[in-house]
Structure formats: structure tokens, C-alpha cells
Amino acid sequence: MASTLPALAIPGQRLGPVASFSAGPGTHVQHSNVYASIAGPVVVEPAQPGSKDKAILSVSRSIRAPATGNASKPVAAAASAKPAAPSSTPKRKLKYNTLPVVDSVVLARVTRVQKRQATVSILVVLDESGSTQGVNPSQTTSDNDNIEAILSSAANPENHSSSDELRFQALIRKEDVRAVEKDRVVMDEMFRVGDIVRGTVISLGDQSFYYLTTARNDLGVVMARSEAGNMMFPVSWKEMRDSVNGQAELRKVARPF
């Protein structure tokens, strides 16, 4: 069955019928067929033996096979796979990816706040392993890996320009700001223009916007300036304080690590 699948897929390419496969990441279902939503290697995750589940078709953003066992392998790699000798120096995984996917943790700058939603510009997409590790400048492999430079530049109001139009745009809806008392959320008290927010992608949305959530303790505003223009520090989950004059302002604050 896998031999009939393409090794590499392009967006919109038909991969297989839903009678034989389930749609995984990087794919979508249309007219009873699974189609590729992105370009990349086709990955098949076989169904468990004895299970009634169907094999899952996905399109990977990486040219390497996932390192989580042999459950899912790119079709091309599976056809020509050979036993590999153990290596004491495995390839280093990039800490920061380029494209957001569902469940990606991202850092974004707030560009507009409305009554029902906030618009943000995605600055960097964090990998789970990379978001909890320090950045070693000597191991930087792309501009997207240099998170200190990104945040330093983003926190400077002088750099808030039309460059945001070239970045991925996302929305944080009122109901996705926090997990409790959603009906009492006031967007102006959660975010301000220029705030740096840590959020998680919950939907790829449409061609214009991703959808983010901050409804976790570790998600929310991580960097912000006060109305006086000074950097602020968190004092609770809903308040930040000016580091110069001590003035408090409301925010949906991310729990510091």
C-alpha cells in the first residue's frame, strides 16, 4: 500500500483514499481523499496490529524521519532503509523551527488589540526541547535560532515597523486568553500593543491568520513596557510592575520559568 504513495508531496496533491488512511499533520480531507496541505516527505504511521484503526498519513516539514521509534517513517526512507551503526554523536535538532504548526509554542508581538481579539505578529517558533534550554550562540544555525537578538529587537519600540507585515500573523480570541472566567476577560487588560506574548498554536486558521491560545499558566505576556516606556516585571498572574516608578499595570502574565 505504501509503495503507491509519493515520496514527496506538494500542497494539494492527492495522497490516498480515506477508506485506507486517516489524515494526520500536514494533510486534509476533501472529497473522500487525503490531500497534502504542505510540501514535504510523506510519512505513514501504520495502524496497531489487531486494531481497526487506519494508517495515518502525514506530511513532514523535516527531511529527517522522527526519532520516536519506528512507528512513523517517510515513505522514501522506509523503502530503502538499512540498519545504521550506533552513533555517539546524533545530529543536533534545531531548537527553533520556521513554520508554526498546531501545538507549536511561539513568541509573538501584539500589534493590535480589539474588544474580541488581539492581533499578533509571530516572531519565533519554539521547539519544546529548545524552549527550555539556553541558547548557545556557537550552535546557532539560522537567524531564527538567535532568540536573544529577536526579543531584544522586538522589545524596542523603534523597530515596530512594517516588517510585521512580512511575518506570520495570528489572532488571540477573547475565549482563548485564559482557562477560567472567560466571560470576564477584558482584552485591554490582558494585552497592550508592543507586548511580547508566549502562546500555543491551536489552529492553522485561514490564509491570513493562525489562532493562538494563552490559556495556560506558562503562557501569556513575557515582556512588556509600561505606559511610561519602561520595562516591567511580573508580580502576579494578572499584574506587571514598572521597574522604574513601580506603577502596576494589568496583563495576562505568563508564569516565569
TrEMBL record:
Keyword vocabulary terms for this entry: Cytoplasm, Exosome
Domain of life of the source: Eukaryota
Gene Ontology MF: a single term: RNA binding
Domain Exosome complex component N-terminal per the UniProt entry, residue ranges: 8-44
Keyword Cytoplasm among UniProt keywords: yes
Low complexity bias locations: 71-89
Compartment annotation: Nucleus, Nucleolus
Entries under Pfam families matching the protein: ECR1_N, EXOSC1
Gene Ontology biological-process entries: RNA processing
Matches recorded under InterPro entries: Csl4, EXOSC1_C, Exosome_cplx_N_dom, NA-bd_OB-fold
Start and end residues of each stretch annotated as Disordered: 67-91
Every Exosome complex component CSL4 C-terminal domain range: 99-204
GO cellular component term of the entry, any: nucleolus
Protein name: Exosome component EXOSC1/CSL4-domain-containing protein
